[in-house]
Amino acid sequence: MPILTNKSIVITGAAGGIGAAIATALAADGAHITVADLSQAAADKVAGEIAKAGGKAVAVAVDVRERAQVRAMIDRAVEAFGRLDVIFNNAGVAQTRPFLDITEEDWRFITDVNALGVLIGMQEAVKTFKQQGGGGKIVNTASIAGKQGYEPLAHYCASKFAVVAMTQAVARAFGKDGITANCFCPGVVATPMWDTIDKGFRDSGLTHKVNEAFDSFAAGAVLGRPSRADDLVGVARYLASSDSDFMTGQSLLVDGGMVFI
Ligand code: NAD
């Protein structure tokens, strides 16, 4: 029997590079996926692909900064699949800014999606897990930027350190309820997010070549190449499955060997 048969899994940012790869793979493992992203059309597309491959999915439009929308997303998963087993708080945004140019508006934009969005996602999932009688898994997407600071992504790094810290706090708070919380930390993954980061480098005059930022960051991976979104599927499957039942509060680097701690 596939490893995630009938598990109800919500994934935010599920129309993006990493989220769609995880959603599609876990659906093939038997999970029932709530595909959640900003755009209903983009979420519908991923859910449609899962259905075409014989899996089960529903699509939901959500802005993870908005508690009522996050609540409705989880309620939709419970309505469609009977319960919530796992939430992946994966939605995120990046922005390149030289350190001295980061504005309050930049800070709020990045931390609202990447940190506040994860806080709300975890809070609403924990409420549902407790109503179900305990158990449940939280998986957050952090980053190597949650382990080291990189200029000119200081505000992005702060938001990802926050994800690592909140994951530990939630793990401590709700272990007694059988709820686990872990995160994984990708390195440099070829997804649309890098278009934004690279553009930011160019606009800031920090680099002028397309993909220079991506290539120079990726050159730090000892395995000799940047990640593909598919490289994150193994850790996602592990963290969503009962194989990881005795692990909580951890942040797993899956970065091709960029950060050693
Ligand atoms: P992506 O841009 O392809 O996907 C991000 C998705 O999040 C998009 O579909 C976007 O619509 C969605 N999103 C953005 N704001 C949202 C909001 N307010 N509410 C709901 N959804 C929202 O990028 P990705 O690389 O797939 O990123 C996924 C996660 O991985 C992010 O948390 C990112 O920070 C993290 N990450 C990415 C890399 C990388 O190199 N690409 C490295 C480390 C960590």
Automatic annotation (TrEMBL):
Entry-linked InterPro entries: KR_dom, NAD(P)-bd_dom_sf, Sc_DH/Rdtase_CS, SDR_fam
Gene name of the record: budC
Lineage: Bacteria, Pseudomonadati, Pseudomonadota, Alphaproteobacteria, Hyphomicrobiales
Family: Belongs to the short-chain dehydrogenases/reductases (SDR) family.
Gene Ontology biological process: fatty acid biosynthetic process
The organism of origin for this protein: Starkeya nomas
PROSITE patterns, per the entry: ADH_SHORT (PS00061)
Keywords noted in UniProt: Oxidoreductase, Signal
Enzyme class: oxidoreductase
UniProt protein name: Diacetyl reductase [(S)-acetoin forming]
One MF term in the entry's GO annotations: quinone binding
